[in-house]
Amino acid sequence: MIGVIADPVDLEVAAEFFELFKTPWEPAVSGRPYRVVLSAVEHSTTIDARVLLVYGSAKRSIDTDAGVTAVRTHGAIDVEFEGSRVPLYKDVNFFEGDHDGGFLKSPRGRMMYRCQKGQRTIWRIGYDLFGEARHLLNTGQPAVNAHIPTLELHIAALRRLLVESEVPFVEVLPRPLGYDFTCCLTHDVDFFGIRRHGLDKTMGGFVVRASFGTLIDWLQGRRVIRAQPGDQRGPWRCRQCLAATWPH
What we know:
Blueprint: E1 2-5, H1 8-20, E2 25-27, E3 34-39, E4 49-55, H2 61-65, E5 69-73, E6 77-81, E7 84-88, E8 92-96, E9 104-105, E10 112-117, E11 120-125, H3 129-139, H4 150-164, H5 201-219, E12 223-224, E13 237-238, H6 239-245
Parallel strand pairs: 1-2, 1-3, 3-4, 4-11
Antiparallel strand pairs: 5-8, 6-7, 6-9, 10-11, 12-13
């Protein structure tokens, strides 16, 4: 279970984010132990977590404690993650210090760092994860970046943080293991309950198809009125279906 500390307005975006990154999460509860906590705001130092992921473009107290200088940069930039370009559309922080620079790369400087505080591993990531997710979900990307799966790359970066921190987690994969894709065949369901529709367009279309549509099909010979012996499904059946199922 991932505990999440975020502004109340960001929890709805967090819920959408974890709908895509299908792993259990909840708003972090004070006093409850977590293997990992993702913090998108300035948080209490008493949070009980073995691994702490601190996102944000604003300066955090953890930066001062780690002896790192945070330099805030305004405007959109690109960073590199595992050979892919990741556009960031909000403000970011670059960090100056002696800690490991991590796997997010930028020619402007370090985008992240890792440090140890007692038994706790702390990752500091210099952008607003849920702010970026909100921008992608509500505003979208410019056409020049339409080919980049930016939100999926944010998820991939978070997944790598968990793996490198040796945190066990459960994830529902979007496709079966060992396969390139999955296909789901479903049947269209028009009505869950007729009383829910009233006199709307759905009900009007149903009435028209059931009356005039059936009459036209009968006049054109696509439907029959009387069922043949042995058919238990009623008189209004497609002639092609009857030909395939009735004994001759």
